[in-house]
Design brief:
- The chain is an alpha/beta fold.
- The chain folds into two domains: about 1-100 and about 265-369, Isopropylmalate Dehydrogenase (3-Layer(aba) Sandwich); about 120-260, 3-Layer(aba) Sandwich (Isopropylmalate Dehydrogenase), CATH 3.40.718.
- It is built from 14 helices and 14 strands.
- Strand 8 (about 190-195), helix 9 and strand 9 form a beta-alpha-beta unit.
- It is globular, with a radius of gyration of 20 Å.
- Bound molecules: 3-isopropylmalic acid and magnesium ion (MG).
- 3-isopropylmalic acid binds near residues 77, 94, 95 and 251.
Length: about 375
């Protein structure tokens, strides 16, 4: 077996191929110029996969996903995806992939880069010092709870049902991940719930507190109700270090938090599973923005979410924290030259497309020592 780390790259749909194209160029640069021991392989997924194999996630892709050190994923969704047969989508969509790889820990770092202050809807004094991580539980809760479905009642009315449920072990494993993460940062964790209304929220709070008291008393723990948290994210986002949420709340709050980073287009993510018997943990890296069908194929999408997702992969899975630091610095330097994709454009910025933003990052990489 080769001792090269294996990265499986999936373009997906919408702007996925465009933004992943730039991340791929950056990864190739590191391999060619810095001789990182990384091998990449493309895998078919989604609309393209269905056209060629009749499956959204072909068996070969599933095997590649299971054996990869890291998966770099573009985006999924949009009209072409929606038009696929319901059966095919059920069998293999992004949520299924998250579930079958047991990717329970979803990290969404939010950093306010000073050069992008003008692109944010928030005032620059509010953005000062913003550097936190949303840790979203990704494999359970309202997204997966049973029973679920749409039923027709005897009176002819239809009723839609989803179930918000968490077990204590599901809460504890993501909370443990959060406390350990906090120990590598500013040692503060804020846990989000709706314990004033929901039983699942009460259990969430009790379990997080109990684990804290038993093993992580050195981490400062606070609890926040989700509605208050939504307000605090736009009022004073710099207060957060690690923000621990369930699946649904993390989905919503991370979109709101994106404005502190200037745009949803800037946000990277890492989704990690449990450590397996061989010491590896499944890991999927993807930009948070999604497929953005309205701008797909136009060459205007922001590739920095995808490129920063690659930086997370370098740091968390590929054993290359130095390369990760260097890449994040290159992104800041590139932005420092004034280049802006549409989503982060502001007065005084220089409007560029996806490719040119990738070029700017590569140029900055060349220049960093
Ligand atoms: C996200 C996305 C997904 C989610 C969608 C595409 C299913 O919004 O990763 O935040 O809701 O988890
Ligand atoms: Mg979302």
């Amino acid at each position: 077996m080769s001792n090269l780390k294996q990265v499986v790259v999936i373009d997906g749909e919408g702007i996925g191929p465009e933004v992943i194209g730039e991340a791929r160029r950056v990864l190739r640069w590191f391999v060619a110029e810095k001789h990182l021991g990384i091998e990449t392989r493309d895998a078919l997924y989604g609309v393209e996969a269905f056209r060629r194999t009749g499956k959204v996630v072909p068996d070969q892709t599933m095997t590649a996903l299971r054996t990869a050190d890291a998966i770099l994923f573009g985006a999924t969704g949009g009209p072409a995806y929606d038009a696929l047969p319901a059966e095919a989508k059920r069998e293999g969509n992004l949520l299924r992939m998250r579930k079958s790889l047991d990717l329970f820990a979803n990290l969404r770092p939010i950093v306010a880069i000073p050069a992008l202050a003008e692109a944010s809807s928030l005032r620059s004094r509010v953005l000062e010092g913003v550097d936190f991580v949303i840790l979203r539980e990704l494999s359970s809760g309202l997204y997966f709870g049973e029973p679920r479905g749409i039923e027709t009642l005897p009176n002819g009315e239809r009723r839609g049902v989803n179930t918000h449920a968490y077990t204590s072990s599901e809460i504890r494993r993501v909370a443990r991940f959060g406390f350990e993460l906090a120990r590598t940062r500013r040692r503060r964790l804020c846990s989000v719930d709706k314990a004033n209304v929901m039983e699942a929220g009460q259990l969430w709070r009790q379990e997080v507190q109990a684990l804290h008291d038993a093993e992580f008393a050195d981490v400062e723990l606070s609890h926040m109700l989700v509605d208050n948290c939504a307000m605090q994210l736009v009022r004073a986002p710099a207060q957060f270090d690690v923000l621990l949420t369930d699946n649904m709340f993390g989905d919503i709050l991370s979109d709101a938090a994106a404005m502190a980073a200037g745009s949803l287009g800037m946000l990277p993510s890492a989704s990690l599973g449990p450590v397996g018997p061989d010491g590896r943990r499944p890991a999927l890296y993807e930009p948070v923005h999604g497929s953005a069908p309205d701008i797909a194929g136009k060459g205007v999408a922001n590739p920095l979410g995808a490129i920063l997702s690659l930086a997370l992969a370098l740091r968390l899975t590929l054993g290359e924290p130095g390369a990760a630091d260097r890449l994040e610095r290159a992104v800041r330097d590139a932005l420092g030259t004034g280049v802006r994709t549409r989503d982060i454009m502001h007065e005084g910025g220089r409007l560029v497309g996806t490719r040119a933003m990738g070029d700017a990052v590569l140029a900055a990489l060349e220049q960093t020592a």
